[in-house]
Amino acid sequence: MSFLHLGLSDPILKIVAKQQYTAAYPVQLATIPVILSGKDLLVIAKTGSGKTVSFVLPVLQKLQGTAKAKSRHIKALVLVPTRELAVQVAEVFMLFSKNLPQQIKSMAVYGGVSINPQMMQLQGIEVLVATPGRLLDLLESNAVALSEVDTLVLDEADKMLSLGFKEEMQKIFKLLKPVCQHLLFSATLNKDIKSVTEILLNDPVLIETEKESLNEHTDLIKQTAYLVSDERKGPLLRYLIKQKNMQQVLVFASSIHRADIVVNKLKMNGIKALQIHRELSQGARMEALRMFKAGDITALVATDLVSRGIDIPFLPFVINYELPRSPKDYIHRIGRTGRAESTGEAISLISPNEEHHFHVILKKMGKLLQALPSVDIDLKGY
Fold first, then answer.
1. Does the domain made of 221-373 have the CATH classification 3.10.100.10?
2. Quick one: pLDDT at residue 340?
3. Which of 57, 103, 272, 379 is the most buried (most CB within 10 A)?
4. What are the residue boundaries of the structural domains of the chain, listed by start?
């Protein structure tokens, strides 16, 4: 179904059409009318379901025609668990606010970088996307005020709670005015989410799309695996990238040290690559992600801790250089491809000591997949 009958205004619909969004996802069909009605909302939706657009569009529409806020008094606040996700959500707001009759300024704030430039840029901001810790820093410095916030969005609330942000979030909640629409998005409905909703939500509408499972996002993903010795993993990785003419591939490594090694070897063999992990500065991480999205590098080598912020609609290839610890992490990794109704390929390089673990993952997924032998592949020169 299209976006035409969801209550969105003509200016919003024109921008949606310009961005070539032809059909709304189920979570967007269910949530946009509720948000426009002003009701509180609890949405249980898996990662990659299209939830960001489902709150960005109605929030932008609600801000159209409203009076400009006082200096440094924001009108909409989006709380997210990671810096990378903050940047991505802010980019979506910026994308859909272009050419609106009333310009809406938005920005992302997060830790790991100097606070002073962020404080200077807050003038005139109406939509703020923030990680809880950095927002509290800004509040303590009187750089931003929450007294005029009309809409609060908690995006990936389950991850914020699992990362230990509950106390910070409760401090933020106390600074909001009583009459404020609260929108909570989570992949799971656990006891922690329930405790937060009891504090925050007023008679919320509950929307539960497809539940997150070990088979999510796999229908459009071609899965392949190769049995390979540890010493041949690097050459096989480079062989696959070159033989399949990969122009954009996300490679997962199990550690920061391994990611650095893989990148160095790729570069030595003429493959443009960068790593992204928590030991890099925030600026370096964002630049690596920007270059990868722009096609300036072929391979981005990531660790699981930062992979949540990597969301590229038409990513064609994912390679597991090493297996993750759990089946859920495996699904999350390969789910970076096969998104936005496009197909993708996920390849796993399985060493002898990972073979049993790989079978465990497949069993939990209910997946039958025969790992291919690689001993006959000539890797000389790779």
1. no
2. 53
3. 57
4. 10-208, 221-373
